[in-house]
Amino acid sequence: MLNVALIQHAVAPTKRETIARTVALIERAAKKAQLIVLQELHQDIYFCQHEDTCYFDWALDFDADVAFWSGVAKANDVVLVTSLFEARAMGLYHNTAVVFERDGSVAGKYRKMHIPDDPGFYEKFYFTPGDLGFEPIDTSVGRLGVLVCWDQWYPEAARLMALRGAQMLIYPTAIGWNPHDTIEEQTRQRDAWVTIQRGHAVANGIPVLSCNRIGFESDPTGVLAGTQFWGNSFVAGPQGELLAVANATDETILEAVIDPARTKAVRDIWPFLRDRRIENYHEITRRYID
To answer: Which of 86, 149, 211, 217 is catalytic?
Structure first.
């Protein structure tokens, strides 16, 4: 059995305060969990609501941030999934998930592949699409298929992780509502977000862990209404069953137990990988079939 914990929380006024809060929650979660997942860009505000080159300087702290979270993983004896802003070279930046082993060593990293460019989510200005591929990360708690936020809408990403032996899919996330949207529209968006990810669990026969932030974050320019992050972090089992769900507003250490034997049993009775007609899928790499 594997005990996992997802840390769902809002950001504090400063990076230092936010990190201190995150570390305190990790220390609590580590009393039970062997694997802890943090939300997307968890160290500070979601700065992609507008375009400003000043935020590129935040990525210059990447090496220091890696060293810090390495220490946190080691101090708490957990496998830790983080989400950091990586400066690779001048003018070249990535949205990068770094996974730490229990001894603080870097087990691996994943650079976000699908980059959105929508009102309030201007990520193409900041992030270059990843070039590390859809490669699972081997850890002491299993082979982790780590993806990031916008990746969660793409079944191809989930499938490729599964085909490379991922034993679970993990999605650090920062997604929310436009406060001007109707309640009905907000509900449709959230339900679609949950449904697509549960579908990845079903289609690939592996658990899904999705960790989102909460709280309202304003647009510093005043152009947009800001974003109300909708939380609802969850863990789904290999048939899409919900093992644990957080709400939309509360700081939460979301705990769940993953049973690898159950994953095998589901794969055995629903052998979707066996029945794939791979010889007929060659056109999947086309943008559109006219």
So the answer is: 149
Residue 6's closest CA among 63, 107, 104, 78? Answer: 78
Q: Return d(Cα 212, Cα 10) in angstroms, integer.
A: 10
**What mean pLDDT value characterizes the chain?**
97
pLDDT tens per residue, range 164-220: 999 999 999 999 999 999 999 999 999 999 999 999 999 999 999 999 999 999 999
From the candidates 48, 101, 109, 112, give the one annotated as an active-site residue: 112
Q: Which of 40, 101, 123, 217 is catalytic?
A: 40
Active site residue 251: no
Q: Reply yes or no on whether 264 is catalytic.
A: no
Say whether 74 is catalytic: no
CATH topology of domain 2-285: Nitrilase/N-carbamoyl-D-aminoacid amidohydrolase (3.60.110)
Written in H, E and C, the secondary structure of 70-133 is HHHHHHHCCEEEEEEEEEEECCEEEEEEEEECCCCCEEEEEECCCCCEECCEEHHHCCCCCCCC
Contacts 24+ apart (CB under 8 A), 67-76: 68/19, 69/98, 69/100, 70/100, 70/104, 70/105, 70/106, 71/104, 72/23, 72/26, 72/100, 73/100, 73/101, 73/102, 73/103, 73/104, 74/100, 74/102, 74/103, 74/104, 76/26, 76/27, 76/30, 76/36
- Which residue is it, tokens 């070039």? 131
Comparing CA positions, the residue from 117, 36, 119, 138 lying closest to residue 83 is 36
Q: What is the domain partition of the chain in residue ranges?
A: 2-285
Query: What helix, strand, coil percent values describe the chain, rounded to 5?
Result: 35, 30, 40
